[in-house]
Amino acid sequence: MIDAIDFASLIHPALAIAFVFPLIGIVVHYSLQTRNRRMQIAKGQKSAVPGSVGTQHLRLGRWLSNSVVILSLIGLAYPIFSKIFAAPPDQQNGTRTILLLVLFALTIASLFLLNIANGKLQRAGFATLTGIGLVLIGCQPEVFRRGFEWYVSHYYYGMAASMLMIFSLAMFPEIYKDRSNRWRSLHVVLNVIAVLLFISQGFTGTRDLLEIPVSWQKPYIEQLYINNCQTQPCTVQPQQ
Q1: 88 is a domain residue
Q2: Domain housing 28
Q3: Is the CB of residue 145 less than 8 Å from the CB of residue 155?
Q4: Inter-residue contact 48 to 118 (CB < 8 Å)
Q5: Where residue 122 falls among pLDDT bands split at 50, 70, 90?
Q6: How does pLDDT run across 14-56, given as a tens digit for each residue?
Q7: Residue 119 burial (CB count, 10 A)
Q8: Which ranges constitute the DSSP H helices of the chain?
């Protein structure tokens, strides 16, 4: 039987599949169209790509960047608060819970202010605050980071992708101001890396879903893990 906690665990992957990953494909498509149009015009050719494609790429790119950061916060909120509220009342730390809620709120507020900031220093400051908030939340002990296999960790890939998205939000006005195209070139390189991270998230996220048992199975899985560790060396760790 699947209860509410199991449904809550599916919010993060469901949003990724239904919203974020399709948006990635659309943004990549518009980016290629924008580049093709720019190169054709630079060669003096008439481009069949409409002029609005650049505006659409910018608008949807900002949607994507914000969505990735929010999705990361949702993915971090589930293990933190589900484990806090599942603990016995005498083991719950009300002050810490309130501080975590404030940290989530401040991180979301910093992301919002990053989107409306005009000055370069303002954007840099709010981007830094958003990134710091995301890292502090990710460092909570309830978050499973797969440190024993960090090189294939859904957490670390996701954090890296989120940081790139925060940086993209902070840098996009500079792309249109810089006539030397250095910011544009940096934008292209960083977002190629981001696409590769998104692809890796599809693999590592699917693997983690297979490894996380539903609530009624969890006690039996943990007991099997304990029994195996008593008879042979453990090379993996169960999802907590």
Answers
A1: yes
A2: 4-231
A3: yes
A4: no
A5: very high
A6: 999 999 999 999 999 999 998 888 888 888 888 788 888 888 9
A7: 9
A8: 4-9, 11-15, 21-42, 53-86, 94-116, 120-138, 154-177, 182-211, 218-231
* Nearest to 159, CA basis, from 62, 60, 75, 58: 75
Position 43 in a domain: yes
User: Using an 8 Å Cβ cutoff, are 109 and 69 in contact?
Assistant: no
**Statement: the pTM of the whole predicted model exceeds 0.90:** no
In whole angstroms, what is the distance from residue 202 CA to residue 154 CA?
9
For residue 233, the tally of other CB atoms under 10 A from its CB is: 6
Question: How many other C-beta atoms can be found within 10 angstroms of the C-beta atom of residue 27?
Answer: 22
With H, G, I as helix, E, B as strand and everything else as coil, classify residue 235.
Answer: coil
Decide if 237 is inside a domain.
no
Q: Is residue 239 part of a domain?
A: no
pLDDT beyond 60 at 111: yes
Q: What is the spatial distance between Cα 34 and Cα 61, in angstroms, rounded to a whole number?
A: 12
Q: How many domains does the chain have?
A: 1
What angle (nearest 5°) sits at the alpha carbon of residue 233, between those of residues 231 and 236? 120
Distances 85 to 88, 106, 136 between C-alpha atoms, Å: 8, 22, 20
Q: Which of 140, 10, 14 is closest to 84 using CA atoms? A: 140
The pLDDT tens digits for 152-206 are: 999 999 999 999 999 999 998 888 887 788 888 899 999 999 999 999 999 999 9
- Other Cβ atoms less than 10 A from the Cβ of 5: the count is 14
